[in-house]
Amino acid sequence: MIFFSAIDFFYVAFIATLLVLSVFSICFILLLRFKSRSSRHLQNFNSLWTVRFLFVIFIILWSLTEVLRLPSFRRFYLYPLFPRLTLPQQANFCKLHLVLSLGFFEPGFLIILLFLLDVSVKKTTHKSFFSVFYVFASCLPLFLLQVYFVFLGGFKVRLPQPFHRTWFIPDMDHGNEALVFCDYPLLSTILFGLFGVIFILCFLLSFWKVVSQVINKALKLRIFALALTILIGLPLQVLLMGMSAFWRPDKPTYNGIAVTVFLITFTFAAVGEGILVIKPIADSLAAAVALVEQQPLRENGQGDDESSSPPPPAEDGLTATKCDA
Hints:
By secondary structure, the protein is mostly helical. The chain is 70% helix and 1% strand. It is elongated.
């Protein structure tokens, strides 16, 4: 159990880092929301604050589900506070984690990431209700399929154990003190892989549209960093999840694969918050401050050259201004 506790500590440390980054992102979003009330330059950019806020909330919820699936964490932190779960309850807990993580939270923040990338080259302003509805409607098919296969059994055809195993009890741990280890069944991985294929195709289309219209080198670099993270990380995550089904969760090989899968999703979340939340909001606030500082100069007849003034912040999923921020 010491080995698992060390791994659990690794998970908790990274999740705590992601939660701190998420809180920092929420502070930026709320600051922009507050500043936009007194600055007309920020009002268009602020129209996406609901989507960004939902993006961060999905990441936070994904982080919390990853903490709760850890066996040692449940034993030492949950059991002293709550009644000890029976083995069937722990098994259902693993199923719930699987459905929420692979069926809703991770697909949810990936879809929002794609949405923010896509709207960065569109001139129309999206309503908050439409944006939120778009996210939930996009997540619903995968979520329902995961529920069907994980909780309802899916196909009536009897498949090998790796296809449907969502939990596992070590051979030496079958007593009353047994802990259930969560697993990734192949069927859930296949469903998530199908989502990944569709997502990558849509991401590539949006990526090329954005790159073709962006002329700023720093912004292009951020877009390429985001693209490399997704295009390399997502297929690798699906591949490793599929491979993990052939090892038992109490084996070191499985734990190495699980840690890598976690780090890939962690990277998606951290890079997404940095590029799609923190950096564009910081740019928009800086541009708004520059415009306010130049206003007295214009009133005094100075600084009339429009080329010397920064453009006002526009609605954009990536930066404070479109194409040439």
